[in-house]
Predict the 3D structure of the following.
Amino acid sequence: MSFNINETDRLLSTTRSVKRRLDLQREVSEEIILDCIDIAEQAPTGGNQSSRRWLVIRDPETKKEIADLYREVGGKFLKEQSELLDGTGHHNEKTIKASSYLAEHLEEIPVIVLVTIYGQHDGSGRPGLFDSVIQAAWSFCLALHSRGLGSAWTTMHLGNASKIAELLDIPEGVTQVVLLPVAHTIGDKFSPVPRDPAREITWFEKWGKTTKKPTSGLASFEDEPGLTVETDVKATPAKLWDLISDINISSHFSNEFEGADWLDEPPQEGARFKGRNKNERIGEWEVTCHVTSYEPNKVFAWAVGDVEKPAATWEFRLTPLAGATRLRFAMVLGPGPSGLTRIIEQAPDSEKKIISNRQRDQHVNMRETVEGIKKLAEKN
Ligand SMILES: Cc1cc2nc3c(=O)[nH]c(=O)nc-3n(C[C@H](O)[C@H](O)[C@H](O)COP(=O)(O)O)c2cc1C
């Protein structure tokens, strides 16, 4: 059996959280809901047990009570944030506004589907819990979307899970996982959204290891192997930016990197700096680096040596999270020559091992750098 990959991929990449484009006027038939549940029940389940239970709510009074309990958890916060972020262009403005709209209109949505499962998570890893329900709930969302309906994955009600259980007669020992408002969508044009590319969030063989080119098993130099370390910091991007845009920051934490001086001012994309390094195996060297990306509070990246064919590229990246910032420090070896390539030339048969050893040392240095920056940023 073959699939139309374009169509399946389109379904998978355009099933959005629909909040403002739910048609509040149009009825949703019971058949459509049950069809989608039948499809969803094809999802895997631990021990092949049937433990998922779906609660479909249409009664206006019950929906109103659920909506009130939902809003009690975070409705006020969403409304305030939505007003605060209005027109600011903040990275979360759209999401918060849509979430606030959904909270305000929850009772007007034709159907609320609560997905639950028999059992309570006790951390034992036994089958039949969250790990047996989330995939089915998502299949339900996909099946809705392919039929011209939409939903949004919501969990805010869980802050009031016991009151919701009381309202809906959900017995003890049943876990509520997700609340899905369901309606026909207004229009049918939904688009994929920007997400991190697979190569930036997929590690090969060991945690943090990347390659820019396809490889199988341990990476060769020509695969452009890289390393990424990340840590979540309780500080604003602006505070972290002051630290990561300091070209001497790594020298405080890494015994490989001695320091650097700007060759061009002001620091910006295209500006150069000279870095001084030392390494037990490779010795001491000085190298000119070119800033390839300089976006305050977001990205600081540079190429080592020849900007067209660098010996390595490095990048600090900041991603805002709720109440924190994710600090990402990534490097890619090559494609240009370096001390490392000279070592490989002397022992070409050991290329993969040499790279692997080099990456092991680098991993330690990079981890120490991000943890050091985190400590500084969280200190005051
Ligand atoms: C675990 C989880 C919990 C969520 N909880 C809520 C929620 O309580 N209320 C809400 O409006 N959206 C909720 N969302 C939806 C996200 O806001 C939404 O997925 C995000 O904005 C991205 O939009 P997209 O799904 O269209 O890509 C939740 C999503 C996930 C995965």
User: Anything to note?
Assistant: The CA atoms of residues 187 and 195 lie 23 Å apart. The first strand starts at residue 52 and ends at 57. DSSP finds ten helices and twelve strands in the chain. The domain at 5-184 is CATH 3.40.109.10 (NADH Oxidase).
